[in-house]
Specification:
Protein name: ABC transporter permease subunit
Helix content: 55-70%
Keywords: Membrane, Transmembrane, Transmembrane helix, Transport
InterPro entries: ABC_transp_perm/SBD, MetI-like, MetI-like_sf
Number of helices: 10
Shape: elongated
Number of domains: 1
Strand content: under 5%
Pfam families: BPD_transp_1
Largest sheet: none
Main location: membrane
């Protein structure tokens, strides 16, 4: 390796030097601070997406209604051009968000008008995998099991909460894993918004001066490596959560039978039998 490649950029050996420099780890612009911001944004967006997508997915899976509409909407949301949509929301929404105060180092003063559009963009991309996994998990449940639960006198809400939700949990967590990884990756694009933190700051800011040995190309590569490591660590953690919270029997069943959310494949539960 050399200190520069044929284009005059620092060589990859500079990335190792960058990681070995304590000044790049600590401080408000260090790797630790930006990783903490990235994790906080990920938790907030994924939790908000789950609060929206899981209840809607449970209702759609239980009733069998609206599956085609939601499937089409989910595919449409996946096709949203992230960067273009982010810039559009910054232009439209940011001037109308008057909040100028911050909250510590994670949300610096003046960043809220730009942080809100960035999180909205990522939220829209996080909802589809959770939503489709949730109603697909409910629809995969044997109709006889659902009818038996209703036959014992359970209401529709009780059937959803006590039967369908536990049985769909492996696919729901699978959707959460997929959404979380997508959020971690997409948050690097959110750093195009002014004052928004996260590991994407290394990548976006590094483009301004690629030849800089500290803030240029080495920082960009280091930021990309940090995003990949963070995604692997979070995915591994969610895998452990899946193994510890879901019955092994349910996990094995969901692994061998992964339904596609095709409308009309599951017989609907007679509404009169649920009361």
């Amino acid at each position: 390796m050399t200190l520069a490649d044929g284009n005059g950029l620092p060589g990859l050996d500079r990335v190792g030097i960058w990681f070995n420099d304590p000044a790049n780890w600590w401080g408000s612009n260090g790797l630790i601070a930006h990783t903490r911001e990235h994790l906080l944004y990920t938790v907030v967006v994924t939790a908000a997406a789950a609060l929206v997508a899981i209840p809607v997915g449970l209702v759609i899976g239980h009733t069998g209604r609206g599956t085609a509409v939601v499937a089409g909407l989910a595919n449409t949301l996946r096709a949203v051009p992230t960067l273009g949509f982010l810039i559009f929301l910054i232009v439209v929404l940011s001037p109308h968000i008057p909040v100028r105060r911050g909250w510590g180092t994670i949300v610096p003063a003046g960043s809220v008008p730009y942080l809100v559009p960035a999180l909205i963009v990522v939220l829209i991309l996080a909802i589809p995998p959770i939503l489709t996994s949730t109603y697909a998990g409910v629809q995969s449940l044997d109709a006889a099991t659902r009818d038996a639960a209703a036959g014992t006198g359970m209401t529709s809400l009780q059937v959803i909460r006590k039967v369908e939700l536990p049985c769909a949990l492996p696919l729901i967590i699978s959707g959460l894993r997929s959404a979380t990884l997508q959020v971690i990756a997409t948050l690097t694009v959110a750093a195009y918004a002014p004052l928004v933190g996260g590991l994407g700051r290394f990548i976006i800011d590094g483009q301004q001066n690629l030849g800089d040995l500290r803030y240029g190309y080495p920082a960009m590569v280091a930021g990309g490596i940090a995003v990949a490591v963070l995604a692997l660590a979070v995915d591994g953690t969610l895998h452990v959560v899946l193994r510890r919270t879901v019955s092994p029997g349910l996990t094995s069943v969901s692994a061998t039978r992964r339904p596609s959310p095709v409308p009309g494949k599951r017989p609907r539960l007679d509404s009169s039998a649920t009361h």
